[in-house]
Amino acid sequence: xxxxxxxxxxxxxxxxxxxxxxxxxxxxxxxxxxxxxxxxxxxxxxxxxxxxxxxxxxxxxxxxxxxxxxxxxxxxxxxxxxxxxxxxxxxxxxxxxxxxxxxxxxxxxxxxxxxxxxxxxxxxxxxxxxxxxxxxxxxxxxxxxxxxxxxxxxxxxxxxxxxxxxxxxxxxxxxxxxxxxxxxxxxxxxxxxxxxxxxxxxxxxxxxxxxxxxxxxxxxxxxxxxxxxxxxxxxxxxxxxxxxxxxxxx
Length: 250
Hints:
Elements: E1 4-9, H1 13-24, E2 29-35, H2 38-48, E3 52-55, H3 64-73, E4 81-86, H4 92-97, E5 102-105, H5 110-123, H6 131-137, E6 146-151, E7 154-159, E8 163-168, E9 173-177, E10 180-184, H7 189-192, E11 200-204, E12 207-210, E13 214-219, E14 225-229, E15 234-236, H8 239-248
Parallel strand pairs: 1-2, 1-3, 3-4, 4-5
Antiparallel strand pairs: 6-7, 8-9, 8-12, 9-10, 11-12, 13-14, 14-15
Helix pairs in contact: 2-3
């Protein structure tokens, strides 16, 4: 069986790195490249003619939907199968109207990714023996050692051991390290499974702290612990986490 030539179009380095790792674990797929904006994605698709594209929707220059529309309008060229990977659910209908194979909402599991690839293999007329990949999907996710973040037009590697804390809303996460804050377009749940729980503690729904950078933990009037970090900031632990902290204290 010929490998399915696969292109990743994703502007968040961490997300692109994670997809590349999952693609590498599937012998049916061959990664032919990655790109981080819409125009380069369109050019790479037209030149390389991949069989499958894993594409974000919100990218610089052109959205993933605009890229797909341009491919549909190309005469005499078969468009690749496209799996959209996005943090936004409002474009699902349009994506399927453009004949996307699947629409994965971030954060999605490796098992969900494998399921989506199986659909793509079937639509390509390829028998998908995905048992090895499914076995890998059941394994514990690999812990992060570093993350690549965008900053001032470039990409900065941040060592996970240097991350002081992460704070998030529903779609974005601020990574604080060495006095700098880097905003990435991923929810905090995308990091939660891949951080060492001996060092990192999710203290409430929107914040994960590195215990190596905690100065003190003091209960407030509601018996919830206020965690003070070395950079002078503070965050209040949830009631459940506060109970865990009391139980952990010697």
